[in-house]
Amino acid sequence: QVQPVESGGGLVQPGGSLRLSCVVSGLPNSAHSMGWFRQISGKEREFVAAKSDRGDKTYYADSVKGRFRISRDNSKNMVYLQMDSLQPEDTAVYYCAAAAVYSVHTAVVDATQYQYWGQGTQVTVSS
After folding, report:
1. How far apart are CA 26 and CA 66, in angstroms?
2. Strand pairing of 92-100 and 116-117?
3. 8 Å CB contact between 84 and 119
4. Chain centroid to CA 117
5. What are 70's strand-pairing partners?
6. Dihedral angle computed from the Cα positions of residues 55, 26, 103 and 94, in that order, rounded to the nearest 10 degrees
7. Closest Cα to residue 48, out of 15, 89, 13?
8. CA-to-CA distance for 53 and 83, rounded, in angstroms?
9. pLDDT tens-digit profile of 46-99?
10. Which of 59, 58, 123 minimizes the C-alpha distance to 87?
């Protein structure tokens, strides 16, 4: 029943910006970490960003620090990924995921701890 759905991907030129959105339907009203992951062609899935339920814990992959920002609007069951200064190496399928956690202050970076995954949205950075 829990189903994250991503949107907002597309084609953008290097240096451009995109904002990805994820709405999670059927999510129980308990603590969940929300995360963004991506899979670059030919590489393993990798962590991008995560945010705790109450928003006081955030983590970013080194590759996106200073360029990407994760945010949540729990009242709307939404999570966002603002991506600025996009580079060709950011081209990937981006996935939104939700993980049940014990604390509203916990943000999870381990993909294996996430139970619910979206179908992914393609981000292509190319000139």
Report:
1. 32
2. antiparallel
3. no
4. 10
5. 81
6. -50
7. 89
8. 21
9. 999 999 998 689 999 999 999 999 999 999 999 999 999 999 999 999 999 999
10. 123
